[in-house]
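Our collaborator T.R. sent over the components below with a one-line note: 'Predict the complex.' Nothing else. No constraints on interfaces, no templates requested, no preferences about which chain binds where. So this is a plain run: every listed entity goes in together, and whatever single assembly comes back becomes the starting point for the next discussion.
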Amino acid sequence: MLFRRSTLRLASLCTHVSTQRFASTKTLKETLQEVIPAKQEQLKSLKAKHSQKVIGDVKVENIIGVPALKRLLPAAPGGKEIIAESMLWLLLTGKVPTEAETRQLSRELAEKGDLPTYVEKLIDGLSPSIHPMTQLGIGVAALNHDSEFQKAYESGIKKTEYWTHTLEDCLTLIARLPALAARIYRNIYRQGAEAPAIDKDLDLVGNYTALMGYGANKDLTEYLRLYISIHGDHEGGNASAHTAHLVGSTLADPYLAYSAALFALAGPLHGLANQEVLRWQLAMLKELGGNITLDNIKDYLWKTLKSGQVVPGYGHGVLRKSDPRFIALQEFCDTRPDLLKSATIQLVKKTYQVAPGVLTEHGKTKNPWPNVDAASGCVLYHYGLTEFKYYTVIFGVSRALGALTQLVWARALGLPLERPKSVSMDTLQDMISKGA
Ligand SMILES: CC(C)(COP(=O)(O)OP(=O)(O)OC[C@H]1O[C@@H](n2cnc3c(N)ncnc32)[C@H](O)[C@@H]1OP(=O)(O)O)[C@@H](O)C(=O)NCCC(=O)NCCS
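Returned assembly:
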């Protein structure tokens, strides 16, 4: 394995990172500098030796699972759930961070977390009736005003240096997302109430809930730590991560690439599903009144399907069994008696008993099992964050971990501009008839 470390580069990096340095810990960037050369070599060698080789299918069980991550990754001080920083570190470097490395990264993000005034003004000027996801996408795109990558590109940096400036932008964006998302929340739902200052000793999600005005709500904070960590990534093939990759492949800066990803996430077949699940469940609760029996839920499922709608929270483009993240959220609920008493959580559990059967009988979906969104919003609702139109914004804060990690690696490996092949239907017909 190649192992390279440039003290010169490190000296310049240190100007960007935390002023508080935990003894004998490496920063995220230093760790990445060690990991990237080996991966670059690996890609070169793979392309040279095996570019024509067909590989087998990758199954979900072959990939490190959510339960293993929950055991391995550090939690916040005083908390039990893994935190976004430890997940980010793992996604970027492939290594499990130590507690000290996680805390150091938390501090680095907290120090970068304040929004520039021009973005505050921009967001404050938007009508509260504009959907929170639209506002988030606008805010993220505008943050590119400060893009290090864009500046460096204009000054004529080498291709091999792209990733370092991309990383700077990605970390700044991840750091600023809580302040941006919380400002949108306060503007729309709290008449623009003043937010507390970012606490430099708190993790990213701890600060996010505090900025939204839920700092004292420890249950919500712990839940969001888990939710944001496990929602961060699930293979780059999902629509939002792919959008970030596609736009990023044009060498657009990370802010523009992630803003585009957010608009993909805003679709009801993707991220908006968690808003839709809750809307659907509340409508079912209203219609069934106190009569929540399995048979009544079945009837409601059929009514949804017969009216031509999808059952939100069920099905998946890739998975063919219950989403492990859905199971992780169920386990979170199972350890908390207050959640088990909640009407919406009970409805999630009962729906899980009958929906796979109904969807199988319906016969269309390839995967009749629940995805993570079947449960995610109900817990937020129970813990008092009831404005479900906002839920996809939380997903947007989370998905940045995966999509932006992918962008750093795309630049480190020098991946090419993505060019989708496009043919007309006539050409396709022609190709088929010629047996091409
Ligand atoms: C996630 C989703 C978009 C995947 O779509 P997909 O890859 O096309 O899934 P499939 O191949 O299983 O779809 C085959 C058919 O089953 C239907 N189907 C899939 N999931 C369904 C569901 N939950 N309810 C009803 N019908 C469903 C599709 O609409 C499609 O119908 P069509 O042939 O008339 O177009 C789809 O399952 C869905 O719409 N789920 C509900 C929304 C949701 O929960 N999204 C969050 C995903 S994490």
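Summary for T.R.: The CA atoms of residues 117 and 123 lie 10 Å apart.
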